[in-house]
Design goal:
By secondary structure, the protein is an alpha/beta fold.
């Protein structure tokens, strides 16, 4: 019996077939790594394939059938990625869930997706599943990866990952042809995965994606970015997010590069340095946090080091971007930049774990121009993409040499864009999703009869043909004077400041624009400590007059920028308040991908919205919050309302 099935490139139409191909042609090349107890453990493609085969046969022994659904929940771990491949090998459909989802959210997805088997990372995830087991009668088996803390659990529904693999190896010997025969049955139009949307306006919807959707989009990304088999990436974003699925799973199987799983979120920066990533995906918030950590360290540095940093960063902002884009730069400029490379830029990239980075991609939200320019100034080739779960993540990408922080670039190969009269972006692409699972009405709302996708995003093309996104089309409104109101655009401009973590803008149908603001406790806390401002916690710090003045300066800068835009000049913020608590997904205020649930926030804090528009200078508020350990408490405050 052959261990793998030789096949031509034209027959590589599912990810299990790509896995077989990599194991046959590059058996000793690294496929996936995990940092465990401070040590990197590496699986080659042939080792990884054997692990997947054992699990798939274990699933088969337990009765997993073609078309069944397998839930996957936990942090980025090789065995969880392997569980997706094992399910797909048998023709089953993986359904990743957000690892920080509360039990209620898990129940909805498991019930809606008709999940039979669940693979969970550890005791934390198992406990959430067992807590709701009576409400999940369709679940027949829960497989756990990490056995720590689970020794005395005797629920018959539970089984260890390694134990199931052992069962699978025995079953494989008894049914030697089954595994490869099931892989051979897979086809390009089969369903590859179901990914649930974040649910900003209602319950999440299951986005059904086929192998054709994901393979065509992955190939477009690999072609446009010249992705190589020797790339090293760090996978730390939620496995349920389309961005992680495209970069850490789909592209990895096709290009054959190595996926690295960090030990924890706390060790990510160290892990970036150790691995020497070459290809990196992160939402703007991650880049913002990196920059904030750099600026905090610089503020705490000595006079000489701080002044040297600011001088050479001034040089970098003038010289770095054109140098990176291959444009002409004066000899003096090149010399100064070379000195800065030795003294500042090179060491800084090393601290950030970006010394070997070839491509840094950002997406999911707009990125601030200052943040964008900072990274490009120090030699990091950061680029912006635009996409959606329903378009398999990738629609446009900024080409090398044509980088503009205001745009999201040009369509990738195979994608065509058009704009409606209202400015809505319509996508024609092989990556356009199959359907919403068990929701034909919602599918018809966003998918045209000829298979194109109505994105719901409003935008326009600039003079070079690059796409600019303004806001969600349904969210773009008008002030009472007829001026345009684009809340997300305003919120993003506020979040470009390191002191602002979240923002919610109001104004549709009103005389003026107002805003809620969440401060970034790390950035503002460091700012306060350097000024000897004592505080007891988030609520106390957020209410300090000095912090209000700090944020007022940020709002004034946003207003200055808006005033220079003829379309949005009337959308300047007139009044704002700093919320007494951080907006939180556990409190229903954000999605699991940290998108603002604007309608829910407006309803929950209606008294604050009324105060902003009622001319008040203060407003008392009492809010119920859910803590990480599940306890419920109340936060009280008397909020200041500031005018600008």
């Amino acid at each position: 019996m052959a261990d793998t099935v030789p096949m031509s490139e034209s027959k590589l139409d599912t990810f299990p077939k790509f896995l077989q191909h990599q194991a046959r042609t590059r058996p000793d090349a690294p496929a996936i790594r995990e940092k465990d107890l401070g040590i990197w453990q590496t699986l080659s493609w042939s080792q990884y394939e054997r692990e997947v085969r054992a699990l798939a046969c274990g699933f088969a022994a337990k009765g997993l059938r073609r078309g069944d659904k397998v839930g996957i929940i936990g942090d980025n771990r090789p065995r969880l990625y392997g569980a997706m491949a094992a399910a797909q090998a048998l023709g089953a459909i993986p359904v990743p869930l957000y690892q920080d989802a509360v039990a209620e959210e898990i129940v909805f997805v498991i019930d809606n997706a008709d999940i039979r088997f669940v693979v969970a990372e550890d005791q934390e995830q198992v406990d959430k599943l067992l807590e709701m087991s009576e409400r999940m009668p369709k679940v027949e088996l829960i497989v756990f990866d990490d056995p720590r803390g689970l020794r005395n659990y005797d629920e018959p529904i539970l089984q260890g990952y390694a134990e199931l693999q052992g069962l699978g190896r025995i079953w494989d010997q008894e049914h030697p042809d089954h595994y490869l025969a099931e892989i051979a049955k897979g086809a390009l139009d089969d369903i590859a995965v179901i990914l649930y949307t974040s649910g900003t306006t209602g319950v999440p919807k299951g986005v059904v994606l086929t192998y054709k959707n994901l393979i065509s989009t992955s190939r477009a990304a690999i072609e446009s970015e010249q992705v190589r088999a020797d790339e090293e990436i760090l996978c730390y974003l939620p496995m349920a997010w389309i961005g992680d699925h495209l970069f850490s799973y789909s592209q990895a199987h096709i290009a054959g590069y190595c996926v690295n799983c960090p030990e924890s979120a706390d060790t990510m920066l160290t892990d970036l340095k150790e691995i020497g990533v070459t290809y990196y995906l992160a939402p703007p918030r991650v880049y913002e946090n990196l920059l904030t950590s750099v600026m905090i360290r610089m503020e705490d540095a000595g006079w000489l080091k701080r002044n040297m940093f600011h001088y050479f960063m001034g040089v970098a902002k003038r010289i770095g971007p054109p140098l990176l884009d291959g444009k002409p730069v004066s000899l003096v400029g090149r010399l100064l930049y070379a000195i800065g490379e030795v003294l500042v830029y090179g060491p800084l990239r090393n601290v950030l774990g970006m010394s070997k980075l070839r491509k840094a991609i950002t997406g999911g939200e707009a990125i601030g121009p200052d943040l964008f320019i900072f990274f490009r100034s120090i030699g990091v080739n950061i680029k912006q993409l635009y996409g959606a779960t329903e378009a398999s993540a990738l629609v446009t990408m900024q080409p090398d040499g044509e980088i503009d922080p205001r745009t999201v670039g040009l369509p990738v190969p195979g994608v065509k864009l058009e704009l409606t009269a209202e400015g809505e972006v319509i996508i024609e692409s092989p990556g356009v999703f199959h359907s919403y699972y068990k929701n034909a009405a919602a599918t018809e709302e966003v998918k045209t009869s000829d298979g194109r996708l109505r994105t719901g995003d409003a935008g326009f093309f600039d003079e070079k043909g690059h796409l600019r996104i303004i806001d969600r089309a349904k969210d773009v409104g008008k002030l009472s004077n007829g001026g345009m109101f684009a809340p997300k655009y305003i919120e993003n401009k506020l979040k470009f400041f390191p002191y602002v973590k979240e923002a919610v803008a109001f104004g549709n149908g009103k005389d003026e624009v107002t805003a809620f603001i969440n401060i970034d406790i790390n950035a503002v806390g460091n700012w306060a400590e350097r000024r000897n401002l004592a505080y007891t916690g988030y609520t106390d710090l957020a209410g300090r007059p000095e912090v209000y003045e700090l944020i007022r300066g940020c709002v004034q800068q946003v207003n200055k920028d808006l005033a220079e835009d003829p379309h949005l000049a009337s959308s300047q913020i007139k009044r704002f308040l700093i919320l007494h608590k951080e907006l939180d997904a556990d409190d229903g205020e954000l999605t699991r991908t940290r998108k603002v649930r604007r309608r829910i926030i407006a309803e929950k804090y209606a008294v604050l919205v009324d105060a902003l528009y009622g001319g008040k200078t203060h407003c008392p508020i009492e809010t119920q919050v859910r803590f990480e350990d599940g306890r419920v408490g109340v936060v009280k405050a008397d909020l200041t309302i500031a005018s600008v």
